[in-house]
Amino acid sequence: MVLRLAFFILMAVGLLGFGTVAWISTRPPPPAAAAANQPPPPPVTRTVLVAARAVPAGSLLKPEDLAAKQMPIHGPGLADANDDTPDIRRGLVGAMVRRSLSQGDIVRNGDVMRPGDHGFLAAVLAPGMRAVTIAVDDISGSAGLIWPGDHVDVILTENISGPNLAAGHNVAAETVLSNARVIAIDQQIIQGAVATPDKLAKTVTLECSEDQAERISVAVRLGRLSLSVRSADVANQDSRPSSNGKTVWAADVSPALGDATPPAAADVVHVYQGGGDVREFRP
Question: 246-257 pLDDT, tens per residue?
Fold first, then answer.
């Protein structure tokens, strides 16, 4: 009897243990264990604007100078960074870089001075330089394809008249200013990324020295001014504008005009009579 009772007690304990194990196995794991089995969450990032290439101090930012980069949202140096949004990109195009940026450097608000900021134009000018504005049209202004920061040559074309002037010397062109930096288009420091026919530039503001500004003022009265955009590589060789140009005559462009000779001046005979009367006789 005792053995049978002990047997039933052992059976009950075994069933209770088996049920306990089964119940525990069907329960969800605790949060700590579940978290240990899950992959870590992706880091929270922020898309900020960085320099796509090296940009020297004093340069005006162009669209191709900006690039986007993913960085941790709590990363160092992001407090003053600019997010990559279309509006912020447009606001930075044409801004002046206060310090030189290397490729990949974050473009912070403190690194740039935006158009419209107080003293922006004066800050853009190099020490001792002046800003001079000339009027352009869709032809002389290179069809609206000139950007602030580009370097241009200013070409004067003038008509020259005279009684004994050869046909090959009645039109002349010369470069009155070379390698001048464009610092403004119209009243805006920047121009839209896409030039449209109804928004072509009417005025262009250039950086030059005091003497060169005076030359431009005289050239405006002499004839028509047009702009010629220089290669970026050539512009970077010498950032200072110069005024050395060679005169190109009409005969240099059209050899046919060089063969034309002006008619010889006719002989004139003056006959002086009393009372101050003077008569001219031409043969």
Answer: 788 777 787 777
